[in-house]
């Protein structure tokens, strides 16, 4: 059986570095043989069984997909049990490729702690709709806001990260709550593109979004949570109960996704549990929750949803910006108070994008727009030119007509299949060609 070996774990004052070895047939799924995580607190006293969790959270899903064994010196018993539970969930989600894999540890460790020593609360936080809604729901517990660099923002994108953390810090100052910045080279460690070549056609999204990010991001938080005494780490939901796409379903549990109650709620380690938050409300419900909170406090705040704006704000032109601003309109507040720029020209721009089908809407995004429609009519819409006409268009538009079920050219399919099945030596030359030439959607 193929193996992924965590050969060395080096625990520093504020960082942990791992050396990983893997069988030759698994080389295509790894970009490097080292993985590192850095924190803004001292993690040097974190026990080895907990310190290994960040890297195990990245490699175990790969092992399950390739029927490989992960070898490690020590692992926390609660997390080891979590791995079994998460693997069982993913195998039910994706029976076509999650079917096997194991972990072999030299030592299974127990970590006892004093009663009350893990009473703190934390949450993953990006400043977007999902994480803001989770904060509002749990604000009485004064959660620490954890932002992670290394996935959406790469470890080498320091300027973007500084702007993103500035946004997090401003919101934290407004709410008087603590923050943490964590850097983990998630996007550089695994070869996510090759994982997508093999498995994306089974998922609604790429490898990390569809399979790995629930356990992966929570696992990165383990040494931080242990050192700071956080007994729960919340992770805001992307989907909601009843979110079921036609193209990919998990009977009775919605559409498969890498973060789900059956994943996140099963992630545990010494003193800490993960929690998948707000699965009981839709995305538009979350926007209405945020609108109500802004009205309650008398102070709106920036919602940061855009991945295209290099200045760290919202571009106001991409589909996600337009969708979020529209949701705020339907929630009865002015999007201009929340970090968006909406005027009569913006309304015309948004309608034209749909009428010309400039945005390659997929079934997933269609679901979000139909959720917004389901919350119409607006009781008290913002009163400025164009709002009434835009909301009338929104009520009547059939978003099913905007869904582009695009097919890749035959040569791209052939190249993709070739890369997926090629020997490693050939893949080294073939895959970069595929990666350069494959179609790249705007959003």
UniProtKB/TrEMBL annotation:
What protein does this entry describe? Uncharacterized protein
The source's superkingdom equals Archaea
Q: What is the organism field in this record?
A: Halomicrobium mukohataei (strain ATCC 700874 / DSM 12286 / JCM 9738 / NCIMB 13541) (Haloarcula mukohataei)
């Amino acid at each position: 059986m193929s193996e992924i070996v965590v050969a060395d774990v080096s625990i520093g004052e504020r960082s942990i570095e791992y050396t990983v070895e893997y069988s030759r047939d698994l080389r295509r799924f790894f970009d490097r043989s080292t993985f590192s995580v850095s924190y803004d607190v001292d993690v040097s006293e974190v026990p080895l069984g907990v310190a290994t969790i960040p890297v195990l959270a990245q490699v175990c899903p790969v092992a399950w997909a390739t029927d490989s064994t992960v070898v490690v010196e020590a692992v926390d018993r609660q997390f080891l049990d979590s791995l079994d539970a998460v693997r069982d969930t993913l195998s039910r989600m994706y029976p076509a490729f999650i079917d096997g894999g194991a972990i072999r540890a030299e030592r299974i460790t127990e970590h006892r702690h004093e009663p009350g020593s893990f009473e703190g609360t934390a949450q993953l936080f990006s400043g977007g709709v999902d994480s803001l809604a989770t904060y509002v729901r749990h604000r009485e517990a004064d959660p620490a806001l954890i932002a992670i660099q290394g996935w959406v923002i790469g470890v080498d994108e320091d300027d973007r990260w500084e702007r993103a953390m500035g946004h997090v810090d401003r919101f934290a100052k407004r709410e008087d709550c603590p923050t943490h910045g964590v850097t983990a080279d998630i996007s550089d460690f695994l070869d996510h593109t090759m994982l997508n070549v093999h498995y994306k056609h089974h998922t609604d999204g790429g490898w990390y979004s569809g399979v790995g990010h629930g356990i992966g991001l929570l696992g990165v938080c383990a040494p931080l949570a242990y050192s700071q005494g956080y007994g729960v780490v919340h992770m805001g939901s992307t989907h909601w109960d009843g979110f079921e796409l036609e193209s990919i379903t998990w009977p009775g549990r919605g559409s498969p996704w890498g973060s789900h109650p059956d994943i996140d709620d099963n992630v545990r380690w010494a003193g800490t549990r993960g929690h998948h938050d707000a699965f009981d409300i839709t995305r538009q419900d979350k926007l209405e929750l945020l609108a109500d909170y802004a009205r309650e406090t008398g102070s709106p705040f920036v919602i940061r949803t855009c991945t295209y704006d290099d200045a760290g704000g919202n571009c106001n032109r991409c589909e996600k910006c337009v969708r979020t601003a529209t949701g705020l309109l339907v929630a009865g507040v002015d999007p201009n108070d929340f970090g968006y720029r909406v005027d009569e020209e913006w309304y015309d721009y948004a309608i034209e994008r749909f009428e010309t089908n400039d945005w390659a809407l997929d079934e997933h995004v269609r679901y979000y727009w139909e959720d917004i429609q389901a919350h119409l009519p607006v009781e008290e819409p913002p009163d400025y030119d164009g709002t009434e006409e835009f909301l009338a268009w929104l009520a009547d538009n059939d978003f099913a007509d905007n869904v582009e079920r695009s097919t890749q050219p035959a040569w791209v399919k052939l190249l993709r299949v070739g890369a997926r099945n090629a020997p490693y030596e050939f893949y080294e030359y073939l895959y970069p060609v595929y990666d350069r030439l494959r179609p790249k959607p705007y959003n």
